[in-house]
């Protein structure tokens, strides 16, 4: 399947904000306003949808969320769509989204991670439209660490441009900022040191392929369905597959990854990237061991502690982009080309 890239955003373009999963509680509305102003500061007009309520775990009934998301993705005046964050049950939108209509429309950037993996990964696999994993609206005001890019940088990147990201060597050891009390916080707490880890052995890693992946806890529920079929998308090309655990313990992650492997999700993988996680280990199984147990039989390099998960900071990965991952004693990094 050929990859279709939305055109780069330019000042004056419109960015849609909607909550396909969880909305924003009243106590966090100030943070939402700060985040919207950050997008506007780039010269974009922001259009906020109706599906934003944060009273429960969903922002609106599924049919309304699906209609609003489809409407924004097919509106030729909206060039990117970003949610405030993920949530829990975006899976209820999949049978309601009009993927054929979205696929016929001029491509629009869809951004997100966590529960948004449930939507952005199938969107790329079913339509060939590139999507951005690794950013959301509420995190946008944070200053981007050296070596990484903001999702706003990615959606404005010229077609065909290669851009590199390298790990900053620091990450957050735990906890979250209190946006209710400090809605304007812009400095990330990166109080722990650490870089990438090769799980399957030793030696240098240098692998290329189309990027695809997302959150294990949400994607595992789609294994074996048309929504997570990588075979048609990949064709004869290799893939760089990335996965990350949000909160499930190592035993659950191990089972989920085994299931995804058995369903063929990793069949075309030239390498697997695993996001850094604070998800708990099991009594006799660590998160790293869980990954190796499930994905070791692939016989490809497995690089863990990559900045593509729930642990800050995060590097955006473009589903569908041609990527190259390098991990040596001298350098670690990911290069992407929107070709």
How helix-rich are the residues, as a percent range?
10-25%
Largest sheet: 8 strands, mixed
User: Which structural class should the secondary elements be placed in?
Assistant: alpha/beta
Please report the distance between the alpha carbons of the first and last residues: 13 Å
SSE topology string: EHEHEHEHEHEEEEEHHEHEHEEEE
- Relative strand content: 15-25%
User: What coarse outline follows from CA principal-axis ratios?
Assistant: globular
Uncertain segments are none
Averaged pLDDT:
97
What Rg do the Cα atoms give?
A: 19 Å
Strand order within the widest beta sheet? 6-16-15-10-11-12-13-9
In DSSP terms (H or I, runs of 4 or more residues), the helix count works out at 9
What is the tally of beta strands? 16
